[in-house]
Specification:
The structure holds two protein chains of two kinds.
Chain A: H1 2-20, H2 28-45, H3 49-66, H4 69-85, H5 89-100, H6 109-125, H7 129-143, H8 150-163, H9 167-180, H10 185-201, H11 205-222, H12 225-241, H13 245-261
Helix pairs in contact in A: 2-3, 2-4, 3-4, 4-5, 4-6, 5-6, 6-7, 6-8, 7-8, 8-9, 8-10, 9-10, 10-11, 10-12, 11-12, 12-13
Chain B: H1 4-37, E1 44-51, E2 62-65, E3 68-78, E4 84-91, H2 92-95, E5 103-108, E6 115-120, E7 134-139, H3 143-169, H4 174-202, H5 207-259, H6 263-287, H7 291-294
Parallel strand pairs in B: 1-7, 2-6, 5-7
Antiparallel strand pairs in B: 1-4, 2-3, 3-4, 5-6
Helix pairs in contact in B: 3-5, 4-5
Classes of the chains: A mainly alpha, B alpha/beta.
Chain lengths: 264, 315
């Protein structure tokens, strides 16, 4: 009975201590930078890229002024991403170079890995598979073992192989990416899409059809019009390879309707 | 020699006595504190004011003078003539500051806050209030009343403007008809000028006919201008009436703003303070356990990686 009483008192004391626990205060500027970052993230998700860029720029200015290394890395990467998707690859490249070649500040490798990955994707966009491969190798080196971005690295490697029309490594890397990205719907759908393309290169349209359909379901759930359109185009190719011209045309029509909305 | 149970019994008795004494001491302390807060230990002077109704007045309400609490409302009672007699208890320490010509005003300290009776100082030369003095009473305007009054003044103006615009837009109205006629007349004149030019080139053969048409067109323009002449005074009259209303309303608004000018900055200041206090309380709560575990953290976040490239040639 006495032990029970002491336990109760102990629990009470722990709860009281908990009540007294107050988070360490962050200064108002830091909070402002974090808020700007989050508002920019919301704008990016709604494809309002101009607003997102403006907000990330403001957040970055504060980060630089306060020498917040992590904040600088995060907001620079995010801003580069916004520039990339809004059709300004040159500015995106400059931002990433600034991060990768900074000699004054030391950034954690996780951010450098992401910067190298984004560089690789920029090169892929410009059909420069050789440079994309160089950058993805750098990203893998920064990433190390058990890196959170391993699935993305695998995806990019698969896409490089696809661009070289190298079906076997494309399929191999995309299969690794599918397995590595099971818990990340966006990357899982990306990997399935790349895998479907690799399967089409290997003339396996039934398998490709299945993968593209899986990717379509995920992209619809995530609400990504551009990706949905890519899935439909892949489905059209798969149907065409199967000799189902009618269904292929149907898929292309569906993809065209999405393109007409010009939503990203 | 005491038996063990007797010893125990006396022990319990002692403890009970100590507990009871402690409880009594605590009660006494609480009573003293209450008495202090109710100013039972300070000397006070009772003064009165007469209000037409008791709306917004409550016993215990604070009485303030230049922002300091100087007393409280002690009692509210209805008089035989259906007016309300309100007794204020003023702390003697402040009585010498309040003249006989001071006024009592019922105000709200903030947009959302308690009402208080504010003593508006009178002139310094007049004798100070004494026991049983009666002050003049008035009700202060709160933000809601000011807004209502503004809205009431603006309504007729908006109606007038609406009516004026409707008159202008009426397809069969004077203005529209006149404009239409003028438009036709201008068209006819343009045609005439063309014809005139052509005629000049072909040797003025149809000059007479053209002059006739020109005459007719000028007649029509003349009659249109006549209609416009008739319509304009009516429009000017309406515009005059509208402007007069605007003038009246702006006078009333100026008056209303002047009446409440002293209170609005105070009101805004207090409201600002209230909002800041609320914000600080919320911030504090958000940072404390366990709420800090439930709230989303404001930290910079990296956008999720997207390892898929859509090449520019397939947008």
């Amino acid at each position: 009975m006495r032990r029970f009483g002491s336990s109760l008192v102990l629990v009470g004391l722990v709860l009281l201590a908990g009540c007294g626990q107050v988070e360490p205060l962050r200064n108002a500027r830091l909070l402002q930078a974090a808020e700007l970052n989050q508002r920019a993230g919301e704008a990016f998700r709604l494809a309002e890229y101009r607003l997102a860029a403006k907000l990330y720029e403001r957040a970055l200015r504060i980060d630089i002024a306060l020498e917040q290394v992590e904040g600088i890395a995060i907001d620079t990467l995010n801003l580069a991403r916004v520039m990339q998707v809004s059709g300004n690859p040159v500015r995106a490249g400059q931002l990433l170079d600034g991060l990768l070649n900074d000699t004054a500040l030391q950034y954690p490798p996780v951010y450098l890995a992401r910067a190298a990955l984004q560089q690789s994707m920029l090169r892929l966009e410009q059909d420069d598979a050789a440079q994309a491969a160089v950058w993805v190798d750098k990203a893998a080196a920064f990433c190390g073992n058990g890196c959170a971005d391993y699935g993305v690295v695998a995806n990019v490697r698969a896409m490089i192989a696809l661009q070289r029309a190298d079906a076997a490594p494309a399929l191999e890397w995309s299969t690794r990416a599918v397995n590595a990205n099971r818990g990340v719907p966006l990357e899982h759908a990306n990997a399935l899409r790349v895998q479907a393309s690799a399967l089409l290169l290997q003339a396996q349209p039934e398998q490709a059809l299945r993968r593209a359909n899986e990717a379509l379901q995920i992209d619809k759930a995530l609400g990504l019009p551009q990706k949905i359109r890519q899935d439909l185009l892949l489905l059209a190719q798969a149907h065409a390879q199967l000799g189902q011209a009618g269904q292929a045309a149907q898929m292309r029509e569906r993809a065209a309707r999405i393109a007409a909305t010009a939503l990203k | 020699m005491k038996l063990p149970y007797q010893h125990k019994l006396s022990n319990i008795e002692q403890r009970t006595r100590r507990f009871m004494l402690g409880a009594l001491a605590l009660m006494a302390a609480v009573l003293i504190l209450i008495a202090f807060s109710q100013n039972y230990f300070s000397r006070s002077t009772s003064i009165y004011f007469i209000a037409s109704n008791a709306q917004g007045l409550n016993p215990g309400m604070a009485v303030k003078f230049v922002g300091f609490k100087v007393g409280s409302v002690q009692d509210i009672a209805m008089e035989p003539n259906a007016t309300v007699r309100v007794r204020l208890s003023l702390n003697n320490e402040y009585v010498h500051l309040i003249g006989q010509d001071a006024r009592a005003r019922l105000i709200k300290e903030a947009l959302v806050g308690e009402s208080v009776v504010e003593i508006i100082p009178g002139s310094a030369q007049v004798r100070q209030v004494t026991e049983g003095s009666v002050l003049e009473f008035e009700r202060g305007q709160d933000a809601g009343t000011v807004m209502e009054s503004l809205a009431a003044q603006l309504q007729p103006i908006l109606q007038d403007i609406h009516q004026f615009t409707a008159t202008l837009n009426q397809p069969d109205g004077d203005v529209q008809r006149t404009l239409k006629n003028l438009n036709q007349a201008t068209g006819a004149m343009r045609g005439m000028v063309d014809q005139f030019t052509r005629l000049g080139a072909s040797g003025n053969q149809k000059l007479e006919g053209t002059f006739l048409k020109l005459d007719q067109a000028l007649d029509r323009a003349n009659s249109s201008l006549g209609e416009l002449d008739k319509a304009i005074p009516q429009l000017v009259q309406k515009a005059d009436a509208t402007l007069a209303n605007v003038h009246d309303a702006s006078n009333l608004i100026r008056q209303a703003v002047q009446d409440s000018a002293g209170e609005i900055p105070l009101l805004v200041h207090d409201t600002h303070g209230l909002v800041q206090d609320g914000q600080r309380t919320l911030d504090g709560m958000q940072q404390s356990w366990p709420l800090n575990r439930m709230m989303p953290k404001t930290e910079p976040r990296m956008l999720p990686a997207d390892g898929f490239v859509i090449s520019p040639e397939q947008p």
